[in-house]
């Protein structure tokens, strides 16, 4: 059983190389929502495995940067030991794609396709699209923000007893509320002073105060009435973060339709210069919260 007091993201991301194509990890309860490891945390685990695989087994490819992630959540993962098996799907000169399967106690929990390249060596046609955030986001002074003194942004201070994984991050939200329903703008940093690296983009692309809270808060923080499991998560990384990492990132999360217990999310992640770092899309469900904590079957089919 994994420890329940892993404080740092870096420690929680520890992955072991058991063989050329087999890796293992231990999922900590402090990175869960309810009893289930957080989906963004798992995305970062997959990205960490890919990074290790391209540094070692596939080092000759010279493709250190993940540029796309396609992750399907088949079943609920759980706290504890996990095995991650890699299959080299396509190895190319410019990009290479691998498949990673996450298994626990004989169950396939998630399957992920990751494509790597070398962002430092990318060359090709570049055109301006004049894209900007709409509606525009508010100006920020990140020096003042750290002390919660920015005139437009304020700290979101709630610590969740259900969404434990979110407690590792500090969110700053617009002081006057979000620009519209179904949209969340946020500046984010780690509470313990850690810095964001490329592998942590998996975590961030799935981390925010819930989009639904402006509509209606249902249940209690200890045991919410609803749970929002992700079925599919895609992530495209546009820009490699510096090797030393960054303290701050901005993200905008927007739902286009919430209907019949299923919804979409579009996520845009920007750096301090307002450059696009990553784009993400999610397909998720709205289900009773007891589906999160229900007893798992040891083998065979199980519900998300």
Report on this model:
- With 304 residues, the protein is mainly β.
- It is globular, with a radius of gyration of 19 Å.
- The two termini are 22 Å apart.
- Helices cover 11% and strands 37% of the residues.
Topology:
Blueprint: H1 9-12, E1 15-19, E2 22-27, E3 32-33, E4 36-37, H2 39-55, E5 65-73, E6 80-91, E7 96-104, E8 107-117, H3 142-146, E9 153-156, E10 169-174, E11 183-190, H4 201-204, E12 226-227, E13 230-237, E14 249-254, E15 258-259, E16 262-270, E17 276-285, E18 287-288, H5 290-293
Antiparallel strand pairs: 1-2, 2-6, 3-4, 5-8, 5-13, 6-7, 7-8, 9-10, 10-11, 11-14, 12-18, 13-17, 14-16, 15-16, 16-17
The oligomeric status of these chains comes to single chain
Approximately what portion of the residues adopt beta-strand conformation? Answer: 35-45%
* Mean pLDDT over the residues: 90
Gyration radius (Cα, Å) is 19 Å
Report, as a whole number of angstroms, the end-to-end distance: 22 Å
- Helical stretch count? 5
Low-confidence blocks of residues: 1-5, 216-220
Largest sheet: 14 strands, antiparallel
SSE class: mainly beta
Question: Which H/E pattern describes the elements?
Answer: HEEEEHEEEEHEEEHEEEEEEEH
* Shape assignment: globular
* Percentage of residues assigned to helices: 10-25%
Give a count of the beta strands, DSSP E runs of length 2 or more.
Answer: 18
């Amino acid at each position: 059983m994994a420890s329940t007091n892993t404080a740092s993201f870096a420690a929680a991301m520890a992955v072991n190389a058991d063989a050329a194509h087999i890796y293992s990890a231990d999922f900590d309860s402090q990175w869960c929502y309810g009893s289930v490891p957080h989906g963004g945390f798992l995305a970062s685990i997959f990205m960490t495995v890919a990074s290790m695989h391209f540094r070692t087994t596939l080092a000759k490819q010279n493709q250190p940067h993940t540029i796309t992630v396609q992750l399907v959540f088949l079943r609920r993962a759980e706290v504890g030991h996990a095995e991650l098996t890699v299959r080299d799907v396509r190895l190319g000169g410019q990009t290479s794609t691998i498949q990673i399967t996450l298994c626990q106690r004989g169950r396939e929990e998630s399957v992920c396709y990751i494509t790597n390249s070398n962002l430092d060596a990318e060359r090709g046609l570049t055109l301006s699209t004049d894209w900007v955030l709409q509606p525009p986001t508010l100006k920020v002074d990140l020096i003042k923000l750290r002390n919660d003194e920015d005139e437009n942004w304020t700290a979101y201070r709630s610590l969740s007893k259900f969404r434990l994984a979110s407690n590792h991050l500090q969110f700053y939200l617009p002081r006057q509320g979000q620009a519209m329903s179904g949209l969340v703008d946020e500046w984010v940093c780690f509470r313990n002073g850690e810095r964001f690296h490329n592998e942590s983009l998996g975590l961030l692309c799935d981390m925010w105060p819930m989009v639904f809270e402006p509509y209606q808060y249902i249940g209690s923080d200890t045991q919410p009435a609803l749970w929002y499991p992700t079925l599919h998560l895609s992530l495209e990384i546009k820009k490699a973060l510096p090797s030393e990492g960054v303290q701050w990132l901005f993200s905008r999360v927007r739902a286009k339709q919430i209907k019949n217990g299923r919804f979409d999310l579009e996520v845009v992640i920007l750096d301090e210069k307002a450059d696009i770092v990553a784009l993400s899309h999610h397909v998720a469900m709205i289900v009773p919260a007891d589906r999160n904590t229900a007893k798992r079957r040891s083998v065979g089919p199980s519900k998300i």
